[in-house]
## 1
Amino acid sequence: MNLIDEEITHKVFGEGNIVDHDDSIITVDFNKDIKKFVYPDAFKKFITLNDRNTAKHLKQVLLKRKMEEEALERKREEEKEQQALEQQRKEKLKNHKIHESSQIVFWLDEEEQQNVFTDWHVFTGRVQSGKNKGQPNRVTRLRPNSASLLTAREADQPEIERRILGLFMVNETFSGNHSDDGIVPSHTEYRIELTEGEAEKMLFWNYYINKNHPHRTTWNSGKYRYFDNVWIAQILKDIIALKTDEEQIKDANKFLEYFCQMNALDFNNIPEANGALKQ
């Protein structure tokens, strides 16, 4: 808003003309006595524009700026609150001896996609090099609090099209440290299979993010990746919102409640997903 040459009245210095202004300072000439004031703060207390139309327009500008500042402050407060909650979560995980990324996500091939929801277990693949070459991969982070996320994409699809097909809690007696056969068995109760239409709406990269490269959506090789505990909760929350069958919604809610209990998460305070596709 251009205020140069506008006539004003100051409570102390009287009548004057604005001779210059920018985003933070206005300069006023009070009959050759030049003074500078903070903009727009000075208009809130000390200075009044003489022209009513200009004053009305300035009032709208100041109101808009105030609303923007308040929105920015609310965002800052929300970020501070979220950071505090995240710190509390990490402390809980530490106290419960839970790794903050003790979940696992698998890239399923075509054969596995056909069998996984019948067998309800996943093979971790084999070591590709070194002294243990050919032996099953040992997923050492997995514990009874862990979930296995099942994903896939077609060979001709870009990586951003990776879909979530389903997920399950690992068997309550399973420990990755003591598993030699590379088989990750499921819990007998906490299992979810998505329909093809549901899977199309549940894109993996809405949740997963490389914190060092937040816009990167690459998975060039490897059978699996470890996965942040909160991301699984976000996925379960969105699955509940996606489902329409009342019985399936009930089962997914029970799954989420159990998962939060096992991972020291607040069921009622799960943050919104913020994966690479949302950056």
## 2
Amino acid sequence: MTVISPRHGLILAAAAVLTAGCGLGAELDREANPERTRAHTPAPPTVDPSRAGGPGGVGPAPQVEPPAATAPPGCPATGVQVTTGMVSATMGLRAMPVTLTNCGAREQRVNGYPDVRVRDVNREPMDVTVLKGPGPITQLDDPGPHPVALKPGESARSVFVWRYSAVDAATQRGSGVYVEIAPAAGVARQTVEPDGGLDIGDTGLLGTTAWQKVTD
């Protein structure tokens, strides 16, 4: 058994009192003057919201990227742009190339024939039957429906064919001035104004070929 001398014990007891006295003195001071204690209580650290991370508020806040635009400026929301080429006329037969270009940032896919509606000079729908295929208007190569994948900048093409019918030059009666075209049924159509219009008159038939990728 270890024996502690009276002098050594007195030193240990004094040290214990001094150590406890620091906490005890602070506690007594709080009891005697609570306002003074509150005034000297340090404020909790503030957290910069810009640096608040997870539940513990540690680390920089995650940066949320803005959603990517569906299409760049000048490109329709569908991500594709429809344009028409020069009308070719031979022996009363008309043919017009229609180009579908992927102007967006994502790959586009088409399969089949364009969806078309023809309107007159007053934007009224014309009585035109749009055919899937060029017959019986003419014999023309038609690739038929098949999957076509268009990367940004790539294009597909369809050919519209019809037979000429007399158009009133003064009133443009019988002319398809506005042609609404979509890659497929159910997709928003885009309105184009072919140069000279579609002099389809009363024939009432418009043939189309399936979309085919442009490789030239």
## 3
Amino acid sequence: MTVRLSGAAIFVIAALYTWYGRGYSAPFGDVLGPSVFPMIVGILAMILSASLVVFPSGQVAWPDRSHMLRQIAALAVLLGYTFLLLPLGFPIATFGLIACLGIVLGGAPLKAVALGAVLSPGLWVLFDQVLGLPLPLMGHWLER
């Protein structure tokens, strides 16, 4: 029963993702538009999750409490990132994301912070400067 419930939950999330992603538009990019990627990912996720509902297999062994708390903390970090991306800007929010996820997933804190400090500006340069995808360098809270 757990597999079917998980499949149904994933299906609902994928359907919402597809629904909201179909209306995404940007003044730059591919001829097909930016909504194609969320549509492809969402439809594939709906098909695969529906197969879990129709054809469940095996028993699920739930992880122990510490692993569940780590997963919940990682989800909270990802949700926090989505809310803080515009107010803080891409480099600072991404630094926080990488450092926090590294610590939550069991990495050494100093290494997680160092990785975030190196990757966040590097990713901003890659996406904004090299690939031409505009990302906010400074957030709303930092502009004055």
